[in-house]
Amino acid sequence: MEWFNLTGLIFVVVLLIPNIIYAATNKDGFADKFHNKLVETGEQIGRFGCFILMFIQLPYVTLGYIYDGAQTLYLILGIVLLALYCGGWIVFRKKNSVAKALTLSILPSVLFLESGILTLNIPLVVLSVVFAICHITISYKNTVE
After folding, report:
1. What does the pLDDT look like over 38-54, one tens digit per residue?
2. Could you give the CA distance from residue 8 to residue 105 in angstroms, rounded to a whole number?
3. Stated pTM of the model
4. Which of 51, 78, 96, 135 has a CA that sits 20 to 30 A from residue 4's CA?
């Protein structure tokens, strides 16, 4: 397996587009009501680690697709999850709700996790689990508190 994954880079760029649009159109940013330094740090480490490991595949810890044909599943699941994520941004654009928080935190978490599993990218799997736990927790807590 090559060290650079162009598809993974495209997935990350598409994932970032709605966030960039949101940040550009909402100068106040996201509500940050939940303050837990450990969870916030875990989220940031997980987030940036996942972003990087989606397209940089480290030798010896990224073992290649889990089975023949897994690349097709990787593409299909990635496209479906990104379409759902972008659709979630559209559907929930004017709302602040638990449904929005969970949709927009679970979908990227699943994208990172399935990408790591299908490519046998061990660090991506580990960081995607860290990211998922922390990101979903923060998103949920910021909505209900």
Report:
1. 999 999 999 999 999 99
2. 18
3. 0.93
4. 135
Other CB atoms within 10 A of residue 127 CB: 24
CB 19 within 8 A of CB 108: no
pLDDT tens digit string along 104-126?
999 999 999 999 999 999 999 99
Cα pseudo-dihedral 65, 8, 105, 137, rounded to 10: 70
- Give residue for tokens 């990211």: 131
**Tokens matching residue 121:** 């990218």
